[in-house]
Specification:
Oligomer: single chain
Structural class: alpha+beta
Organism: marine sediment metagenome
Strand order of the largest sheet: 1-2-3-4
Largest sheet: 4 strands, mixed
Number of strands: 4
Number of helices: 3
Protein name: Peptidase S74 domain-containing protein
Length: 143
């Protein structure tokens, strides 16, 4: 147990004879597991893998249902293809380099991926309509 007056850790657990702190609770309430460094703005830092049965992210931003709104500007498939050829990733999603440098926010990424699923759904619906129209034209042509 540390000294709260020093501004350092108020509680830690060390592993055996080593001086490595395995669990570290700071006076400000931040917790480090396997690390003594908790980045500014965060309450928990873990040096290692985490497993859980469930993880809930509460977003303060809007969920991407705007994709189904009448005024949503869905990129054409040709525009999408050109974007992918040029940028090597989907629009609105970070590149591999950006993820490597900055990591990802789970809540933000879930919302972005849902937006892509909703866009794909709109593309499939449009393709189905186009397919049905072509079937009708073909049926008329065969008559």
């Amino acid at each position: 147990i540390g000294d709260v007056t020093t501004g350092k850790s108020v509680f830690w657990i060390e592993s055996g004879q080593q001086l490595n702190q395995q669990l570290n609770i700071k006076a400000n309430g931040s917790i480090g597991i396997g690390t003594t460094t908790v980045p500014s703005g965060y309450k928990l830092a873990v040096d290692g893998k985490i497993i859980a049965e469930e993880f809930k992210v509460e977003l303060s931003e809007n969920w991407p249902d705007h994709v189904f709104g009448e005024n949503y500007n869905l990129m054409s498939l040709t525009e999408l293809e050109n974007y992918i050829i040029k940028n090597r990733h989907l629009p609105g999603l970070p590149s591999a380099d950006e993820v490597e440098e900055n990591g990802v926010s789970l809540g933000d990424m879930q919302a972005r991926l849902l937006q892509k699923v909703e866009e794909l759904t709109l593309y499939v619906i449009d393709l189905q309509k186009e397919n049905e129209a072509l079937k009708d034209k073909l049926a008329k042509f065969k008559k």
